[in-house]
# Entry
Amino acid sequence: MAFSSSTNSPATLPSAAPGQTNRLFWRWWRKQSPSQQDRYATLGPLVSVLLFLAAIIAAFWYLRNEELEREQESVKRDTEVVQQQIRLRLIENQEQLLRLGREISIKAVTPEQFMRQAGDFVRARPEVISVSWVQADESVKAARTTLSLPLDPSQAMDLDPLGGRTETYDPLHVAKEPQSAFKLARDRGQPIYSKPYANQMSGRVIQVHVPLMDRSGFIGTVVTEYSLESLLRYLVPREVASRHAMGLIQADGDMLTSTVGGDSGTSVKPTFIYDVIVTPVGNGLMLRGMGFRTSSNLIGNTLFWMVVALSALTVWTLMGTLRHMRRRSQIQKTLVQETNFRRAMENSMLTGMRTIDLEGRITYVNPAFCAMTGFSEEELIGCVPPYPYWPKDRLDEFNRMFQQELLGRSPMGGIEVVMQRRDASQFDARMYVSPLIDAQGDQTGWMTSVTNITEAKRVRDQLTAAHERFTTVLEGLDAAVSVVSVQRGELLFANRSYRLWFGANPDAHTQLTGGEIMPDEIIDGDESVDHFGGLPTQALTNAGSDTREVLMESVQKWFDVRARYVQWTDGHLAQMLIATDISARKHAEEAAARQAEKSQFTSRLITMGEMASTVAHELNQPLAAISNYCSGMISRVQSGNFDNEQLVGALEKTSRQAQRAGQIIHRIRQFVKRSEPQRQPSKVRDITDAVLELAVFEMKRRRVTLNATIANRLPILMADPILIEQVLLNLLKNAAEAIDSSQMPQSRRIIDLRVQQKKTEEQGPVVEFSVSDGGPGMKEEILARLFEAFHSTKAEGLGIGLSLCRSIIESHHGRIKAENIYNEDTVVGCRFTFTLPIDSGSDTDFADTVTTPSNDLLADNP
# Structure
């Protein structure tokens, strides 16, 4: 019993506590006097309302503060997002301009090419107003602005980049800020952004000046002008602009432009402001995010506006109900009118209409269908298959088509069938089937439209037979035959070969004829002749045909084209063309030229293959140096024993070694890269420098000293620099191999390269390249056959190197020869000499006379 009592007592306490509290409250309430009870009864609701109002006020105060903080944070976040968008776009544009600047610095871009590239750059970036190429003397060499862009990117503007509009456009003399940026870019050698200023059209803009540097130093800048208004318009995301206003301001707070219009933005003072610097521009240009509060006196008017809103909502609901009922009545009236109109239209049309339900029972036919089949509407409504208009001998066929129709598998183009009238006569018809959908979107049956095509089919069959007889012969020809109307430019006829090559396109006919379809006799004829009528076809059709050879890029074929004017079947003038494929002949003619090019390319590959091991050894040195410098810097950093000067020095050495390795690979790729022979103004110094950078590897491997002597004031040559480099490198490599294979002593392991200007009786003024070695020389009978194809003095040689050298030099109208060098009666070496003629109008290359040993051609090893 004691155990039972102790276990039950905890369970009774929770249930007894509420009741006990309730009894205590009512006991205290009965003890109070009536006046006190009334007072408490009045104060109770008042206290409750006050507590409720206090809770509402506290809640609104809390929500208001939270809303303000959230809005401030939203403004800050959106401003930073826009700053990031602008920064990424400016950096991306700056990288594109740097690449364009590097191409200009290495003279790989002409003003015309700059105009095209600048046009593509401006067209793809709406925030860019112009891109200009400014020279060191602040003169504009070429400029492209948004106003000078063609409407069609595929059409080039007929403008001179150094004349026309570019003469009147000066990006440096609009304000003082561009001149300051230009000078800073020149002094610092890095991209510089100008301060904001007003351009010629009173628009707020900034400029970025990308310096152009070459071996001689500063040569100008690439100037890009940004519209501050376009930066905000195109780089501020739409969702950010819909939430907050964004503006660009100066350091003194002056508003330049904003997303809410005008230079100063809005007249309403923003509630939330957050400023960030616009990078990488700087120069006091800042991005300001602005937030505006749209609510006022939220706490005092909330309940009032809630009641007003609820009342307005009730009135709006009642008015909406009335409008809905009125609209429903109008819709019903319109539906009756539309039904009557549809019925009248169906009754008046010649196309038969028939409707069946999902079980195949006819539910509707229009008068045209009844007239077509001869059965009345009463006879057809309610019929199930087989229908009375089905031919008795084709019931199985119609049953199969009917099952496909119920399954929704009828062809979209319709079905040709034979139908039977009431009088047992038959006619050809085309049926089109579509599903019938009710207002709820459910399918209730199928709608079939029937068209009588008996007469149309008969005419079509006759025309088809006539067309087949007309085109049988022309379709069998291997040549393309086409006829185009002179007046309308339509393709009247094309045989199988024409359609196979060009399709049904009259543009190919125009291209084959050179774009001249309208004859001059019509264009310059008598004005009294009616336009397109009474054309003088007789004289034109009696004239002979002209012949021409045309390359069609679309099919990559050459055609022998013959065209003449004929009088077409309708009496109008037309042009007939016969194009015969002559691609095989053209390809055979081009094969010889490609074979010569491949031989030159193969020779360069063989040369570089022989030098591969030396090049690999040469690359190992800068790569090993880079690895050592990096390991040393890592060790210093980990140990903490370093200073900034040592770190900068090590990084500079690492950079020089990386540039050295990159230059080696760049020269090899430029030499080996296959390209079409292209003569261009070339400096002799550039050719020799390129060859010496490649030949130094072979000289070091074979322990041969190379001395190069280049005369001063050499003229500019009109030549293919890659081919001339190939000849000169082959001669230097052959000389080094001759010295090394003969085991010559170190005193005779010398090669002399001399380049000078001479005047010969046969060629006149020429530039002479001479390669002399201290090798054993060659026999006279070998010298006589030295430049013959497949004749080699080396056991593993192919005999094509010197033959290709002679072909290259002779293609440049030059001469090449080889001779032994004698000391009295002893052969002490061999000299190869080739000359290149000088163009009478060429400029002079002001290069000093330089004698360069091979060991100084590359940077010192670390």
About this structure: The first strand starts at residue 128 and ends at 135. DSSP finds 23 helices and 30 strands in the chain. Residues 34-105 form the longest helix (72 residues). The chain has four domains: 78-240, 349-452, 460-518+543-581, 608-856.
